[in-house]
Amino acid sequence: MPVFKYTALDLKGKTAAGIIDADSSLVARQKLRQSDIFPVSINEVKGSTTSKSTGYSSFTQRFTKIRASEIAMMTRQLATLVNAGFQLVAAMDSLLTQTKSAAFKTVLARIKDSIVEGNSFAASLSQHPNLFSTLYLNMVRAGESSGTLEIVLERLADMAEKQQALKRRIQSALAYPLLMSAIGTLVLFFLLTVIVPTITGIFEDMNQVLPGPTRFLISISVFFKDWWWVLLIVLIGMVLIGRSLKKTIKGRYLWDKTKLFLPGVGTITTKLAVARFARTLGSLLENGVTMLTALDIVKNISDNVLIADVIDQAVKSVGQGQSVATALNDGQIFPDLFIQMVHVGEQSGELEEMLSKIADIFENEAESTIMSVTSLLEPLMILVMGVVVGFIVLSICLPIFEMNQLVR
Length: 408
Prior knowledge:
Radius of gyration: 30 Å
Shape: extended
Number of helices: 16
CATH architecture of the domain at 175-408: Up-down Bundle
CATH superfamily of the domain at 175-408: Type II secretion system (T2SS), domain F
Order of helices and strands: EEHEHHHHHHHHHHHHHHH
Largest sheet: 3 strands, antiparallel
Structural class: mainly alpha
Low-confidence stretches: 47-63
Strand order of the largest sheet: 2-1-3
Mean pLDDT: 80
């Protein structure tokens, strides 16, 4: 159905603007007039014909990405408006005027229209499964049924903002080492393919055997200069094959297992996964979702096959009367500290609060581990670059030293 941007006047003569979906501009005008809004101009948004399954056009979906930060900001603003006494439809109207992204405006307009038609907020959000996760939908559904929608929205906003903040800190910590690696690789490639052949060309007319390091350097230089495109093809092929294997069951299992048990990387991956699991499970339980349902939801967002299998088995064990801590400990994936704190939370009846503390602890530990690793990577990369450049300089200077000795 097409989506139209409109400028209109309300009953008080004030200017209003927004987005509305309708079969035609005429139908859009009629819908606005029925809402006591009198349109001044109506223009169709290009590429706005949407499908019910995605919520926005294939053109928009392909070229415009709605960021997680936009959804987090929308959730925070909506929670503030609802908490201030705004009706849900009025709050959505206010959000439409504040949203800058045309694609997100289209989605919000469709959600608002669905609510006006009599659907619940959760049902309206569920029409856009590519934007709103199962966790988001279940928490909103629980908030609507309990009459605490504003509280649920605030918790969702808190969760999203904490995840975004952690993600930004991790990206900032990794940005410098990755940049240094990229620059170092380009510099070495330039030295081996341009500088080294120019200098070593001087030794071609010499009637003496070159030192071993010099011959080795020349061989590497010739290989990179003549066959760099083969290396590029192999690298691209490895990436494509890796992505294809990750789409298979065995390949995904092997990849997720490697991420969990690889030295260094496995520790960080496990801590981040545990933090995400604890925060999500705690939020679901706080909003009245039953333990079995909450575990089943968390399983679907774990983003790791091994962890999902452990949680799936834990669901069956908890359903048979076993404690959560014992059920999760059987999988031998979750750290001992996590199991102990969950056990204490169950015994004290404050599992939700304990899960929140667990999430904070493991997020801080993961961030500290990443900072420690990156602080070690920086001098290590400088050392490696120094050794490689030193070897190049030594390999070039050795024949020159031998020439000087022959002259003497």
